[in-house]
Design brief:
By secondary structure, this protein is of the alpha+beta class. It is built from 15 helices and nine strands.
Length: 373
């Protein structure tokens, strides 16, 4: 899943701000604080067991091979980053509230379009809700740390200068601002649920198909009912979205999806949204996600967007750039000043690099023709 993160943009790591301490053997100390073998093994094993490395075969599992040593070097660097940042977060007494996490999550949902899309991305990347919450918490901590220690404010002049120097970037396609109510209806998902519920395997294929059709018909009937209510009173659309929509992210905002270009949505949805007049409720639109009821609230013509329309977007972008630069500068200074001791010399990056060079040299020798050995 690709989310905008200050720390990732800075080339550092966010998701490592929480460690474990099963094995308290200190392999490294950073400013007197230990990095344990358990912390290292947890992250190293997770990376070595990733689907990408599994495809490379058993040699990739060799801890003394090229991939094993590269992974070791990367994990050690990440753990040192984590420790130094944690020390600074504690020093500045930075905390994260439930409201902070909720706002950050909403920011992501707004950016990618819907709660449904977020859930799809999480599933594709094997990210649980708990892991997402942990990552958001860590990102917010780092963001607050940068704000607390650096000047990341952007002036009005910086905004207008950026706009004037990058006008071509603000030539936008036509966009619409729409809200929708989704009655989720995925036949494959329904079929899987029916099969999983049939513990004893009593249902024949025809029975399963019949049940799938019945469930799809129920969902269409609900969509028709909701659409009829919305068409009678478009002013109640937001209330209906909060009550009925299965896209929980947009439902919380009355179904509002914000402004989007045509290519941002699946074709049936986009075709309907861009053909609607404002404040007219659509017929039921069927997409791969289910049954949509759509209402368009506003339109923006294609062409150069005026500064007033994009100034907030520019300010956010420039602030992000300043935060990335500030974080890189801050961390470079902190690492240079940090007292890092490698209690287990096999984790010293210099020794890992020496092993890597030896590994590469051995591979080159093995690959040479017999008469050159």
């Amino acid at each position: 899943m690709k989310l905008t993160k200050t720390l990732i943009a800075a080339g550092l790591s966010v998701g490592l701000l929480t460690g474990c301490a099963l094995d308290r053997t200190a392999i490294i100390t950073v400013n007197g604080e230990p990095i344990t073998k358990a912390q290292y093994e947890k992250i190293y094993n997770a990376q070595m067991n990733s689907p990408q490395l599994k495809q490379l075969g058993p040699e990739a599992k060799n801890p003394n091979g090229y991939i094993g040593l590269m992974t070791k070097d990367r994990v050690i660097n990440e753990l040192i980053v984590k420790t130094i940042l944690e020390q600074q977060i504690k020093k500045h007494k930075i905390t994260v509230s439930a409201a902070d996490i909720k706002a950050k999550r909403k920011e992501i949902v707004d950016k990618i379009g819907s709660e449904e899309r977020l859930q799809e991305i999480l599933k594709q990347n094997g990210v649980t809700e708990a892991k997402l919450r942990e990552d958001l918490t860590n990102e917010i901590k780092v963001d607050k740390l940068v704000v607390a220690t650096s000047d990341t404010k952007v002036s009005d002049k910086e905004v207008s200068d950026f706009y004037n120097q990058n006008k071509a970037s603000f030539n936008r396609p036509e966009t619409v601002r729409a809200s929708h109510i989704l009655i989720e209806a995925n036949p494959q998902k329904i079929k899987e649920e029916i099969i999983n519920a049939d513990k004893n395997g009593k249902l024949a294929a025809a029975d399963i198909d019949k049940k799938v059709k019945e469930e799809m018909d129920k969902k269409m009937a609900l969509a028709k009912k909701v659409r009829e209510e919305a068409a009678k009173n478009p002013d109640k659309f937001a209330d209906l979205a909060k009550k009925y929509s299965d896209d929980k992210g947009s439902a919380a905002n009355g179904g509002d999806l914000g402004f989007f270009p045509k290519e941002a949505m699946v074709k049936p949805f986009a075709d309907a949204a861009f053909s609607l007049k404002p404040n007219v409720v659509s017929d039921i639109v069927v997409s791969e996600y289910g049954n949509h009821i759509i209402i368009v609230k506003d339109r923006a013509a294609k062409g150069l967007q005026p500064l007033d329309k994009v100034k907030d977007e520019i300010r956010t972008f420039l602030e992000q750039q300043k935060k990335v630069a500030a974080l890189q500068k801050m961390f470079a200074g902190l690492r240079a000043e940090a007292k890092i001791e490698y209690n287990d010399k096999s984790f010293d990056p210099q020794n890992i690099q020496n092993a890597l060079r030896g590994n590469i040299g051995q591979n080159a020798q093995n690959a040479a023709p017999a008469d050159q050995k």
